[in-house]
Amino acid sequence: MTTRKERDKYRSVSVLEDAGKVQWRYGHPPDFSSVNQLFEEGQTKVWPEGSLEETVQNAIKSWEMEFSHKIRLQDFKTTNPEKFKLFVNGREGLSAEETLRLGSYNALLKNSLPQEFQYYKPEEESFESSHDAFRSALPRGFAWEILSVYSGPPVIAFKFRHWGYFEGTFKGHAPTGEMVQFLGLGVLKVDESLRAEEIEIYYDPGELFGGLLKGPPISETKTTDSGDNTAEKQSCPFTH
């Protein structure tokens, strides 16, 4: 496991470099020990050190780390803020400022479905509430791995897997303890310094929400003989 005193081998940008100058969202550099353990226990691919696959995997994890934990674009090392655009499932691109304001969950979960068919409504969520919801549902973290890389820089096409264990409540649904995951495709365009200029992501949100909505609604869970509602007693840990 990694600690804040060690360099994170799964991210190309160290949280320790210039740590005192960076404005961190939660007041300090993040600790990825829990999600790194989840990754090591559940990864299906182990890429050789220095390979293109490992390089892309670590670069994407570093990109996500900066958007989730840094609050100023001037502190980013993985992104070209003047040119950056995030495209999800063919929708209109989001700038670096918009992505940072919305948060990675809201940016990736925006959709054009009618309101009555939306499992999750990003426009009703803030950065903080969206991250709280998924940290509660997936207390050990939400691991990410590269499955394949089809082309090298400057335009990198790849296939990925995202997974975690539904061990906390999610939007009124009791946890199942089961793995939830989804697969997707991405295209990453980088500049000569390997900073992201454009990212395109394609995936089916139904794969994720199918697992998160499988738990029974907490209001409908049965009360035990002692009068305690077991679902209501489920904790909502806030770990990362």
UniProtKB/TrEMBL annotation:
Sequence ranges of Polar residues compositional bias: 220-240
Annotated segments matching region Disordered: 219-240
Domain of life: Eukaryota
InterPro entries named among the record's database cross-references: NTF2-like_dom_sf (IPR032710), Pathogen-related_defense (IPR053218)
Protein name: Pathogen-related protein-like isoform X2
Organism whose genome encodes this protein: Camelina sativa
